[in-house]
Design brief:
The chain is an alpha/beta fold and 274 residues long. Helix content is 40%, strand content 15%. Bound molecules: nicotinamide-adenine-dinucleotide.
Length: 274
């Protein structure tokens, strides 16, 4: 069994540094993909209510036959369930679909600032953690301004902020803010949704290490202490993306990748998306 690195969260819990993302995996495909991922060594699964595949994920978890305590399951509160009372109902629905008694991490999916309900939502998540329904709580797509507002108002610092992060969008100022406040950074679309895989700089580094470009990009995330959740539905790629614990990038190669930072956002702007 691979020695999967664990990241310590600010509430004392630990989270696998590499997990399996299931965005855009259909519900009837999710069970097979999750089962394959867990059989390949993954222990962390990242889903969300809006992905529409929590039932499939739940079936995959059961089929994998690994003890619940050895797994780390994340799901997320969708924007239309934000507010004071809705998050408790939304998490209850997610748990029912996942066939779980608790999630390891519950995230507010987007700040959706136009609704201006993320402070109330954060208060609700704090209560859900106290009830043991979410072992850890965090946010996703929050900017430093959104984070400052919930921390100052509620006084509880999120364990994680899951944000778009890859070599073309390295989010250095936000990562510095996280480090100052004890928030772990989790990279979504870590491979740039596959768009980074033909980058010549990354391909040349991959050749040097006799690894795939995807493996080099994932190693860059790991070497930068980021939590990372690549997605694939192909068995060989699911395995390939997990086979990243037998090498490390040299400082010169990390520095070359650092130079690819280009404000290359693929997903929505968190200040506008609702
Ligand atoms: P990703 O960066 O993980 O890229 C996935 C794509 O890359 C695949 O569809 C495939 O085309 C390709 N790919 C993957 N492994 C490969 C390999 N070894 N070789 C060749 N091609 C490969 O993109 P993603 O799915 O957008 O992001 C990963 C996860 O992040 C999602 O599944 C989801 O769990 C999470 N996510 C969260 C948010 C959010 O708002 N919080 C948004 C997007 C994604």
């Amino acid at each position: 069994m691979t020695n999967l690195p664990l990241i310590k969260l600010n509430d004392g819990a630990t989270m696998p540094q590499l997990g399996f993302g299931v965005w855009q995996v259909a519900d009837d495909q999710a069970a097979g993909a999750v089962k394959t991922a867990i059989a390949s060594g993954y222990r962390s699964i990242d889903t969300a209510a809006i992905y529409g595949n929590e039932e499939g994920v739940g079936r995959g978890i059961k089929a994998a036959g690994v003890a619940r305590s050895d797994l780390f399951i994340t799901t997320k509160l969708w924007n239309d369930r934000q507010g004071r009372d809705e998050p408790a109902k939304a998490l209850a629905e997610s748990l029912k679909k996942l066939k779980l008694d608790y999630v390891d991490l519950y995230l507010i999916h987007w700040p959706a600032p136009k609704q201006d309900r993320f402070v109330d939502s954060w208060r609700a998540l704090v209560a859900l953690q106290q009830q043991g329904l979410a072992r850890s709580i965090g946010v996703s797509n929050f900017t430093a301004a959104h984070l400052t507002r919930i921390i100052d108002t509620i006084g509880v610092v999120p364990a994680v902020n899951q944000i778009e992060l890859h070599p073309r969008l390295q989010q250095k100022p936000l990562r510095d803010f996280h480090a100052t406040h004890g928030i772990r950074t989790e990279s979504w679309s870590p491979l740039g949704q596959g768009k980074l895989l033909d980058d010549p700089v990354l391909a040349a580094i991959a050749k040097k290490y006799r690894k795939s470009t995807a493996q080099v990009i994932l190693r860059w995330h790991l070497d930068n202490q980021l939590i990372v959740i690549p997605k694939s539905t192909h068995e060989e790629r699911i395995r390939e993306n997990f086979a990243v614990f037998d090498f490390k990038l040299e400082p010169a190669d990390l520095a070359q990748i650092d130079k690819l930072d280009a404000n290359g956002r693929i997903g929505p702007d968190p200040d506008r998306f609702s």
